[in-house]
User: Fold DNA-binding response regulator from Paractinoplanes rishiriensis.
Amino acid sequence: MIRVLLVDDQPLIRSGFRALLDAEDDIAVVAEAADGDAALALAREHLPDVALVDVQMPVVDGIEATRRIAADPALAAVHVVILTNYGLDEYVFNALRAGAAGFLVKDIEPEDFLHAVRVAARGDALLAPAITRRLIDRYVTQPPHRDARAALRHLTGREREAVALVARGLSNEQIAARMVISPTTAKTHVNRAMTKLHARDRAQLVILAYESGLVVPGG
Assistant:
């Protein structure tokens, strides 16, 4: 059963998402919060698999809530998905850097929304290749960041290759085919890279890959 925490300051939005999620046999909403401060407390209490967090809220916004959840070792298994009305914007980018696994626009189709929750629960990033390109084109086209570039020195050559392929939007199975290795080995390379780079999830690997210059837009 996928356990979900809903965080949005609009009760009508929360009730709509709850009705959609609770209708599924494999998903259950375990708690709701109207701001990021309450979200952190409820995340610690219920340990959800997925936290759906509105990016703009009073008291504590979605970016700060994401940052606090990502920084809490007890919440390492909680995958934060940002909810936004506006699509890809600076708030979403900052939330991804803070530790979010991806983002969803609130007018998403119901079947796509449910699929996204299941994807996030598996620990995969909600960053399709088209979204990744828009993200990079808009925000990470500056020269490589020194700290991000230095962090890559801890990776083996195969781990660097795997991270570059993650940044291109490939799944573990696709990475395995490209590198001519087993999916298990591909997953191992990705997981070891995440550990060495202190990346919470694949979304942060994507950002690090571009910020470091390992992958360049259009390359």
Notes: The chain has a mean pLDDT of 86. The CA atoms of residues 94 and 100 lie 9 Å apart. The first strand starts at residue 2 and ends at 7. The chain has eleven helices and five strands.
